[in-house]
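[User]
Protein folding is very new to me. Any chance you could explain this protein sequence and its structure tokens? I have pasted everything here:
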Amino acid sequence: MKKRKEIAFPVLDVKLVDIQKVVANDYNPNKVAPPEFELLVKSIEEDGMTQPVVTYYDQDNDKYIVVDGFHRYRACLEVFKAGEIPVVTIEKDLSNRMASTVRHNRARGTHQIQSMADLVVKLANDGWKDDEIGNHLGMDLEEIIKLKQATGLREAFSNHVFSKSWEEFESKYYKKDE
């Protein structure tokens, strides 16, 4: 079995730095759609900054270059108008920072449909309304309904109040002919 090298812990050296000293890198291939960015903003509002931005410190220019966490940085800069931001630094050359960025992005994984559907139904069973679920999880009503459907219609919609439109239609158009 291959022995792995020892783990470094830059996370144990978090520091607050002036956000004006932090700059984006020019190579990050990761993009976040507006709904996901709004969810990130909501997450920071609700939970605070739970992860520092990973940076490389450029001594020549006295700047911290973002390796991972650009969208957290952007939210703090543009939305929250933060004066400082928590960062950790790593010491790597440009090529290795680029590889680190991709590893950070790809290692996050994705949410599995069935697991998300189970979570949505659990929240609904705990009394959360669809608009609360949508607001807290960054989903629109259509996505919530689709996830509920993935778990089985009967259970997912057992507490749903349905429209009486068909009965109203019948009484208006069919009952007259009798």
Remarks:
- Helices lie at 34-47, 70-79, 94-107, 113-125, 130-137, 141-150, 153-156, 165-173.
- The radius of gyration is 24 Å.
- The first strand starts at residue 15 and ends at 18.
